[in-house]
Amino acid sequence: MDEKGEQVGIVSRNEALRRAESAGLDLVEVSPNAAPPVCKIMDFGKFKYELSKKEKETRKKQHVIVTKEIRMRPKIEEHDFEFKLKHARKFLLEGDRVRASVQFKGREMIHQEFGRKIMERFIENLQDVAKTEKDPTMEGGQLVVFFVKK
User: Fold this and answer.
1) Within 7-133, where are the H helices?
2) CATH number for the segment(s) 67-149
3) pLDDT by residue (tens digit) across 11-63?
4) What angle do CA 45, 49, 54 make, to 5 degrees?
5) I need a surface site. Which of 39, 43, 110, 146 has the fewest CB within 10 A?
6) Which part of the chain has CATH 3.10.20.80?
7) Which overall architecture, per CATH, does domain 13-57 show?
8) Contact 115, 102 (CB under 8 A)
9) What is the pLDDT of residue 28?
């Protein structure tokens, strides 16, 4: 193609370079695998700039879901529980995913029911803004549940 966007047909390499130079533009290979290779006469700097602008625009429009983590212990105090709950609610309303976990250490592993009660309370308090992806599960020494915004 020439600088006006019109198809020229099969032209020798030297002829194409001469045409591009006379127009003050660049000869850009568009499709190198074709037989014969397809080239275009254009301003390559402007072309790269337009490509980067399009890429930037698509990155701006996409939303990345971030997973925030809330860690608790089986013997958490009431105020600390409320504080963690408030933060989880804030994260969910911002559109993030929340991973809530209750960590057990040492002898606490024997009494996992305390951790399960805390997790059930946590789930119950967040039911108005979030839903759980699946039931709480044990992962190593942690009881874990994931929340997503309703």
Assistant:
1) 13-23, 44-61, 78-93, 112-125
2) 3.30.110.10
3) 888 888 888 888 888 888 888 888 888 888 888 898 899 999 999 998 888 87
4) 150
5) 110
6) 13-57
7) Roll (3.10)
8) yes
9) 85
